[in-house]
Amino acid sequence: MVSKNIIHSKKKLIYLICCGIFLGYLCVQGLLFYWKIPLTNEALIDIGVSALCATLSCFVISNTLNFYLPKANNLWKVLGFSVILSFISLLILRLLVRGYATEAYMDFFDDGIPYRLLINFILLTWMAVIIIIWNVQEEAQENSLRKQESERLLREAELFNLRQQLQPHFLFNSLNSIIALIGTKPEEAQNMTFQLSDFLRGTLHKDEHSLIPLQDEIEQMKLYLSIEKVRFGHRLNSVITCEESLFKSTIPAMLIQPLVENAIKHGLYNITGEVLITIECQLLAGMLQIQITNPYDGEAANPKKGTGFGIRSVQRRLFLLFGRQDLLHTEQQQQQFICTLTIPQYD
């Protein structure tokens, strides 16, 4: 669509310039003739034919340059082509004028050949410069569009790759838990299967790089936490604090889940007893801030050490989507690990 619009605009520009050259040539040459000689029929025909030849020459060079964009070191070829075309147009003009003009008028015509040649050369060169500048801008715009499309496809591929790496880990853990519950607690295994099905259905219908309402993301996290609750039983407790006024805020789909999964892993594996995972949402200075807190005992005998992929994946997604590196912050305060996620909100 963009290319068609550009081509249409270029053709329109060429036609307008050629019409302007024709009318301008008529006016300027008419004034010069009026100043030099009486405007006889020969002079009027000469003026019209001269304007037509000059206009056709400009049209020829403009269409030629549509198929050839000279580099900086080949601009002399354009100048040479302008000189040759000026001579050819002037030769055709002389042959046409000679067919009806008297010998006296031909002498007048021949005396003005250097001036006519100079005017034609200037017009053709000016036309060539306009078309070359237009073509350079057009090429730069097309290169920019191709670059943007290439970068977009690359971002989508990387986001898809991140998604493919995140989901199997959670899926395998859930399936192992279901298998373990089938023999001892078949009803819980059945409920967990339904919950897992609903959770995966929700993730499959969400575009990885799209923005969704915060309410949908929270509902998905509640479903995720209910599945993990079946896995870990009474040891896992969670509290989600979010005012209804924030439900319409937007957030990239499935952005919180890796952070909550990270909080559960480091919270439950490093601490014996019950663990509380909190998720707090608030709006600060036009930015949605989500804080995920889990207990963390760095002095445990065998602290659980992860690969850090969950946090890195969220950081990478935020950079790909918003172009910023400062939207995810982690810190440890006493025996609490706090992960703060900031999402820009746009009207």
From TrEMBL:
Keywords, sorted A to Z: Kinase, Membrane, Transferase, Transmembrane, Transmembrane helix
A cellular-component GO term for this protein: membrane
Pfam families for this protein: His_kinase (PF06580)
Gene3D superfamilies: Histidine kinase-like ATPase, C-terminal domain
Any one GO molecular function term: phosphorelay sensor kinase activity
Transmembrane segments: 12-35, 47-68, 75-97, 117-136
Domain spans labelled Signal transduction histidine kinase internal region: 157-236
Top-level division of the source organism's lineage: Bacteria
UniProt protein name: Histidine kinase
